[in-house]
Amino acid sequence: MGLFDSLKRAADSALRREATKAVNNAVNNAMSNNDNAVGKGANRSERFVFQALPQNVSELQSLPEATLDTPFKTAALTIATLCLFSNNQDSMYEMLDFLKGPESVSNYEKQFIGERLRGKEYIPLSYFSGATPQNGYSPSQPMTIEVYENPYSFDNEHWATLWVKSGGADNMRSIKFREKPSTGQWFLNDIQCLSEIRVPAEADPWA
Fold this sequence. Notes:
The protein is α+β, with helices and mostly antiparallel strands. It is built from 6 helices and 5 strands. It has a 5-stranded antiparallel β-sheet. Strand 3 and strand 4 (173-180) form a beta hairpin. The chain is globular, with a radius of gyration of 26 Å. The protein starts with a helix and ends in a 15-residue tail after the last strand. Mean pLDDT is 86; it is low at 13-41.
């Protein structure tokens, strides 16, 4: 075999290696992108409008969201219910019992809610549109709330974590839900959205 033939074979072999490498990289990238997309929902949201917030469990149950057939509906009702803390805690806990389904609000949960909201009753109101520190967290009317999912909200079967946005915080806060498969209803599991937010401007000496 002459020198020219040897060089030609070496060049052909190098070209084949590069072509194979390029194809493999393209396939791997496509598979990786597909894997990343599986199970990852869009960052969609659902909006709920209340002409008036429910004041007792009967009023809560009369709302169309009370079917609880999506965790978004349960999330909106949870925030609406927590707004009752300063007016009637007994009714608020009865409403939360309804939202928790087979379970009821534990003494620990009552203590937790009390510690977070006592003197800071504006926290749940801050999740409604138009509520800001500057206006003392007075929502726009009718009262509107947006509930968000992210790509990991439904990673575990029968469980969901959704998010709500406060007018007094930079980051969204979460609420956890559990589905009851026999009824298809989503019940409240863990209220994780009661962390401190910016105080109303009228109470802020640095405002």
